[in-house]
Amino acid sequence: MTSDRSVTAAGLPEDSNVAVVCGDRRPSKVDPGSYGMQNDGTFLHPASTYVNEEEKHPFRGGGADLFPQTGGYDPNTYKSDNVTVEAHYGGKRFTPDPFHSWQNIVDFDGRRYMFQYDRSEARVYDITDVKNVQVVESLTRDDVAGVAGNDEAVASKDWAAHDFWGASTIQWSQKYDGYIMIQSFEVKRQIPFWLGDTPDKSKYGVPQGVADVRADTQLKGFKVYKLNGPRKKDWQLLATVSTDEHQKNASQPDFSKPQQGSGSLDVPHWDGGRYMFISTAPSDDWSLQEYPTYLYANGFQVWDMGDPAQPRLLDTWHRNGMVRGEEAAYRGNPRCGNRTSWMGSRNPLYIPTPIEEGGKYGFAAMGGFGMSIIDISDPSHLREVGHLDVPMSVSGTEADNVDVSQFEKTGMVYLSGYPLSEDCYEPYKDIFQVDATDPANPRIVGRLPRPTPPKDAVVTDFCQRGGSFGPKRSGYYTSPGDPKNGLLIYDFYNAGAQFFDVSDPKRPKVAGYFAPPTFGPETDDWARSNPTHGVYIENDRKIVWLMTNDGIYALSSESLLGTPNLGAPTVPFRTSAR
Fold it and tell me: Where does 350-412 have alpha helices with state H?
């Protein structure tokens, strides 16, 4: 432990794991004349900003000027001729959460189901007939939404206290002759009842909020279920595992007191084989983290899942500078002290080839810590073989997603963060083309082109539409079927689904797009800032599902993806594509 301590406004020492390593270097408010619309119709982004997801930052020629009757948000649709909207299912019935959701697909008895969920809010859809999607089950905590503090701490009609639907991988298990679902259980990140983005509400200014986060007694780790059908009643619990390294027995967590660390973040990487990789901070002192409402800097763990009911920890890895006692390394990062950057992973390793099939490398996206390439050939001894620092892009999330779908063919991976602010009040989040042919020396060799509206559109830059603009992620490895060579499909927030042709890595191009209205008739005003938030791709049926603040869209493109199958899949989904 070092002498670096968090301090209150009164100068009193508080939680020693809220580190103040470089003082307060939070970016100040940007001169409005230094960014905005340019004479050629493009948008100049500010160089550096603080994080505040609730603020609006209208600019001259932006959404507030162009769309005053709709509150500054664009009601129009933009679509390339080669993309077809097969169906749209709008409204809150098809919107479990307008800001974020996870998705999975399973097949039971000749029917295909899609799960869309974020913790307590969830939907189960029968998507067998793409033109006639039905809601099979709806789960919520709305009946306890009025409780003070964390509503997840109390039981609701659908959920036990501290239970929810964590980000999941679902794969077929030969041992159990059925689907196994592994759910991440992590500390909630949106916690306005405890902490907020502004300095007076952040972890640096509200020691009681930090104490409340620490005191929560939810599981920090993951749960393993066997799925006997598509509904929640069909979940059969096999294991409950804590990632807290201080637990005497990880598979029998002690719930009489709070668990340490973050738990497992986002979708675990498990393809149905022996090894699972997760993003986690296993202890409270993994905490060299700038983000104002988050207490942990996450690294990685690998677990032996030879028997999914008895997971066994094999190794834990982090990069120097994440854990208390490593402040000297942390001070060398130019983000130190900005109280804005996300430092550490949000996702597990991105793995192009399973270890059982000869895979040797995993790609570690770690926010402001950049991207590392990890030798996973010995899962009990993870080892960094290469590292890449990423250009500063603050605020917003850096180094979040690594698309590895093209790595086996071209040696190229695609690295990106994503925006958090409205009205483009942050640097643009590039999708970097990274040549990883030599894993010891990865290098940025290009960027995917920035999407632009069609020439006849009301706007000349997507920043004018209102809400956030920039890449989120290119779907998830859990999708059924094999991804198409040379094609990447990203969600781009207010620019919708963007199809990139990367068949020639030296000449990438936007090959198609669909950007829906930024809101629908049932979209709450506060939910308009994230018009879309995800794509989930059925590679086998050649359907792209776009998740929005007004339900879900089913998209196809015969020229880019091939002829879509709008009916039952010819082969049921079992394990994920590589």
Answer: 407-410
Cα dihedral 416, 578, 113, 115 in deg (nearest 10): -30
pLDDT tens per residue across span 526-544? 999 999 999 999 999 999 9
Instruction: Name the token pair of 198.
Output: 């502004």
Tell me the pLDDT tens digit for each residue of 138-154: 999 999 988 999 999 99
Which letter does DSSP use for residue 227 in this model? Answer: E
Q: What is the CA radius of gyration of the chain?
A: 22
Task: List all residues 6 or more positions away from 366 whose beta carbon is below 8 Å from its beta carbon.
Answer: 299, 319, 343, 344, 345, 372, 399
Burial class (CB in 10 A: 0-12, 13-18, 19+), 572: middle
3-state secondary structure of 281: strand
Residue 301 CB: number of other CB atoms within 10 A?
27
Residue 112 near residue 104, CB atoms below 8 Å: no
Residues 370 and 389 sit within 8 Å (Cβ to Cβ)? yes
At 34, give phi and psi (nearest 5°). -95, 0
- The DSSP secondary structure of 13-56, one letter per residue, reads B--TTS--SS---PPPPPPGGGSEE-TTS-EEPPS-----TT--
| pLDDT of the residue at 11 | 47
Give the long-range contacts of residues 499-505, CB within 8 A, separation 24 or more. Answer: 499/80, 499/83, 499/557, 499/560, 500/431, 500/448, 500/449, 501/560, 502/406, 502/412, 502/414, 502/433, 502/448, 505/406, 505/410, 505/412, 505/433, 505/445, 505/446
Q: Which residues pair with 242 in a beta bridge?
A: 221
Give the C-alpha separation, 27 to 30, whole Å. 8
Residue 367 forms beta bridges with which residues? 343
- Report whether 181 contacts 230 (CB < 8 A): no
- The CA-atom distances, in angstroms, between 80 and each of 88, 454, 497 are 17, 8, 11
Q: How far apart are CA 315 and CA 426, in angstroms?
A: 37
289 pLDDT tier (thresholds 50, 70, 90): very high
CB-CB contact of 278 with 269 (8 Å): yes
Distances (CA, A) of 94 to 52, 74, 134: 28, 21, 10
Q: Which residues pair with 443 in a beta bridge?
A: 435
Smallest CA-to-CA distance from 229 within 102, 126, 96, 117 is with: 126
Average pLDDT, stretch 454-472? 97
**Residues contacting 371, CB < 8 A, separation 6+:** 363, 364, 365, 387, 388, 390, 399, 402, 415, 434, 442
